[in-house]
Specification:
The protein is α+β, with helices and mostly antiparallel strands. It has 9 helices and 22 strands.
Amino acid sequence: MQFYLNGYKTGDPFIEDPHPSVAERPGGLPADVDVLIIGCGPAGLVLAAQMANFPDIRTVVVDRKDGPLEVGQADGVACRSVEMFEAFGLADRLVEEAYRVNEVAFWRPDPDDPSKIKRTGRIQDVEEGLSEMPHVIVNQARMLDYLLDHMERSASRLEPFYGLHASDVQIDGSGSSEYPVTVTLQHMKDFEETGETSTVRAKYVVGSDGSRSGTRTAIGRELVGDPMNQSWGVMDAFAVTDFPDIRLKCAIHSANQGNILIIPREGGYMVRFYVALDNVRDKEMLDNRNVTPEKLATVANRILHPYTVEVEDVAWWAVYEIGQRLCDKFDDVPVAEMATRLPRVFIAGDACHTHSAKAGQGMNVSMADTWNLGWKLGAVLRGRPSRNCCTPIPRNARRSPSSSSISTASSPRCSAPTRPSPVTVTM
């Protein structure tokens, strides 16, 4: 027996008793919801994990994939992100499984022989006093599994609906509807449309549906910034090498052969290679889109000289062609109408800002977006937000407390997630 909040009882203390609404919940996709989350990436699932803590708020999560992510994509979890996971009670699991990034090694051309690389520095990865949590590396799929597990154990028993693609988002701006956002969902199988559609009406919609976000397009936003002028190949590999710092995070710059970022993976064996592809030297495979893990390994050996790496097995690989881009606004309200209209559709994560893959910022900033947005949605939908969370809308724009919509007489206008600060990374 252990002592819990509500007395002595057997069972797992991390599984909450289901909320009464769970038993009353109809099977399948509901017609009306309070919050519809589009996308099961890091941004979407951090928001879903937060909303799962509000069982009285009806939340639905949809994703176009057939199921949860299994391998690949982002892997660096910043200290602040681990702090977020601590709030969910998941930090211990995350840190125990992950690779801790304690140091960073820097390699540059050898002054005596620039055709070779030489270690020029080795520094602490995280400055003293920044956080009680470490900077860690873990498969994004594992991290998302933790969030899905938290949702399943919550009183909401929240689970995503897979195989649904949001093809259209319509907003009723009249203010007369309790559910002003109507989303059309295309049913998918193996990323192909089946021809079947469903419609969901929502009080709020959050589009965390990636850099090609249909939600962003629907609300008239656009990513603006640097063009896609740099290509990086990335692969998670089991490798045999004589490179001495293979189990350290390394930033490697050769004289004229390119750059590599090495990230050791959790488990003690796998390593991730971020390989910069040269627009001149590697032009043929970039233009013909015939990059392969074997070709990435060839480029890696070119950069690592005089050391060599023999790639034995590749668990996952991809090519990133992405610039630094940002939307001017993260919700559906035009700037001219901000004083009189409440936002109903938000975008988060890659839908509103994209980052160079080598900086390790995309996933972490995306999760910060929805971490910021989640508590605001919960407060507004429960009718008890803090007066200090954001600026109230003008008195003449408030609705009556008897209105079927959320009473803005006591609800400030919570706008989009905080825009990420510019990040400069020196490699």
